[in-house]
C-alpha cells in the first residue's frame, strides 16, 4: 500500500503513514516526500526505531547532511557524546552518566529559534528521533513563519523591507553562553552573520519572516534602541499568532522540519525523567531576499 500524508489537526504539519523508513526509498517516493515536507513544513512519522545509520540514510532522502552545531562552531569543551555515536548525530538529552551529560540542552526550556541561524548558511532542516520521552513536558512546538509574515501589519512590514538582521552565535537555544564566546555587550558588534529579515524560500519561493532568535539580535543600520523596539514589535506580533503545531512526544516519533520556514521551541521537563533524542541536520544555503540581485 502506498504511504499517505495526513495533515495534522493544526495549522501546519502532516503525519506520514504506512511508510517503511528502514529500507531503500524509491526515487518517486523521495520526490513526493520532499514535496510534502515543503508543503506542510513539519512531517511526523510515528512508531519508528531507526539505528543511527538508518536515521542518517533517511535524512538524506531530503538533502545533504550538515555537521551538527558543535562541529560547525568547533566547541573546544567537547560534547560529552560517546565515541560510538557517529559524528553526523547529535544526542539531545538530559541524561547523565557518571555525572557527565551524554548530550546537549539538558532539561530546561529552549526558546523560539531557527537551528544554527548564526552561521552563513543555516541548515535547511532537521530531524529529531525520540528514543526516550518524559511522561510530561518537553513538548516541541513549531510556528509557521510564512504565515507570520503574511499577517504582519503593513507598517511593520515596510519597516523591515530590505533590512538585515545580525544573528549572534554566543548563546544556545536554552540561553546558556557557549564556552568559547565572550558575553555580548554591544549587539551591533556580535560575531554573527547578517541575514535578510524577509527571506525567500529557495524551493517554494514563499516569503518568510526570518528572526532566528531574539537574544542579541540586531537590525543592521539602526540605532540599538530602535532596533530593540522594532524587534520587540516583530516578536510580539509573532507570538500573538496561532499558526503553531505543538508536538507531544512518544517514544518512536520522528519529526522533520523545514528550518527555513518555521521556528521551534521546547518546553522544560522534570529532570528526574529521562529524555533522549537523536538529531540529524540538513545542509542549507545562504538566505537571500527578493532585494538581492
Ligand atoms: Fe533547535
CATH class: Alpha Beta
- From the spread of the alpha carbons, the general shape counts as globular
CATH superfamily: Clavaminate synthase-like
Cofactors, ions, other ligands: fe (ii) ion
Q: Which segments are poorly predicted (pLDDT under 50) over 5 or more consecutive residues?
A: none
Beta-sheet strand percentage? 25-35%
Helicity level: 10-25%
Could you tell me how far the N terminus lies from the C terminus, measured between alpha carbons in angstroms?
46 Å
Overview of this structure, please?
There is one protein chain. The chain has six helices and 20 strands. It has 293 residues and is an alpha+beta fold. It has a single domain (4-282), classed as Clavaminate synthase-like (Double-stranded beta-helix, 4-Layer Sandwich), CATH 3.60.130.10. Strands 1, 2, 3, 4, 5, 8, 10, 18 and 20 form a nine-stranded mixed beta sheet that branches. The chain has a four-stranded antiparallel beta sheet with strand order 9-19-11-17. The protein is globular, with a radius of gyration of 19 Å. Residues 113, 115, 173, 264 line the site of fe (ii) ion. Fe (ii) ion binds at residues 113, 115, 173, 264.
Give the helices and strands, then pairings.
Blueprint: E1 4-7, E2 14-17, H1 27-40, E3 42-45, H2 52-59, E4 65-66, H3 69-72, E5 90-93, E6 96-97, E7 100-101, E8 104-105, E9 110-113, E10 125-132, E11 140-144, H4 145-150, H5 154-160, E12 164-166, E13 194-196, E14 198-200, E15 207-209, E16 218-219, H6 224-239, E17 244-247, E18 254-258, E19 262-266, E20 276-282
Parallel strand pairs: 2-3, 5-8
Antiparallel strand pairs: 1-2, 3-18, 4-20, 5-20, 6-7, 9-19, 10-18, 10-20, 11-17, 11-19, 12-13, 12-16, 14-15
Amino acid at each position: 500500500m502506498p504511504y499517505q500524508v495526513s495533515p495534522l489537526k493544526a495549522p501546519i504539519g502532516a503525519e506520514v503513514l504506512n511508510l517503511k523508513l528502514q529500507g531503500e526509498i524509491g526515487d518517486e517516493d523521495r520526490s513526493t516526500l520532499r514535496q510534502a515536507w515543503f508543503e506542510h513544513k513539519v512531517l511526523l512519522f510515528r512508531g519508528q526505531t531507526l539505528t543511527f545509520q538508518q536515521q542518517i540514510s533517511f535524512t538524506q532522502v531530503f538533502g545533504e547532511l550538515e555537521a551538527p552545531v558543535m562541529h560547525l562552531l568547533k566547541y573546544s569543551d567537547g560534547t560529552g557524546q560517546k565515541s560510538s555515536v557517529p559524528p553526523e548525530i547529535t544526542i539531545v538529552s538530559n541524561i547523565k552518566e557518571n555525572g557527565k551529560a551524554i548530550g546537549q540542552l539538558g532539561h530546561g526550556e529552549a526558546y523560539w529559534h531557527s537551528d544554527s541561524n548564526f552561521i552563513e548558511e543555516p541548515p535547511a532542516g532537521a530531524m529529531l528521533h525520540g528514543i526516550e520521552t518524559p511522561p510530561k513536558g518537553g513538548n516541541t512546538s513549531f510556528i509557521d513563519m510564512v504565515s507570520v509574515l503574511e499577517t504582519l501589519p503593513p507598517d511593520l512590514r515596510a519597516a523591515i523591507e530590505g533590512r538585515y538582521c545580525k544573528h549572534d552565535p554566543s548563546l544556545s537555544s536554552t540561553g546558556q553562553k557557549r564556552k568559547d564566546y565572550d558575553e555580548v555587550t554591544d549587539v551591533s558588534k556580535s560575531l554573527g552573520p547578517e541575514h535578510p529579515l524577509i527571506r525567500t524560500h529557495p524551493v517554494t519561493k514563499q516569503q518568510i519572516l526570518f528572526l532566528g532568535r531574539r537574544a542579541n539580535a540586531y537590525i543592521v543600520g539602526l540605532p540599538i534602541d530602535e532596533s530593540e523596539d522594532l524587534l520587540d514589535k516583530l516578536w510580539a506580533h509573532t507570538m500573538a499568532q496561532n499558526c503553531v503545531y505543538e508536538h507531544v512526544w512518544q517514544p518512536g516519533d520522528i519529526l522533520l522540519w523545514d528550518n527555513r520556514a518555521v521556528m521551534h521551541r521546547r518546553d522544560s521537563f522534570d529532570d528526574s525523567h529521562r529524555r533522549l533524542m537523536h538529531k540529524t541536520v540538513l545542509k542549507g544555503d545562504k538566505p537571500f531576499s527578493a532585494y538581492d540581485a
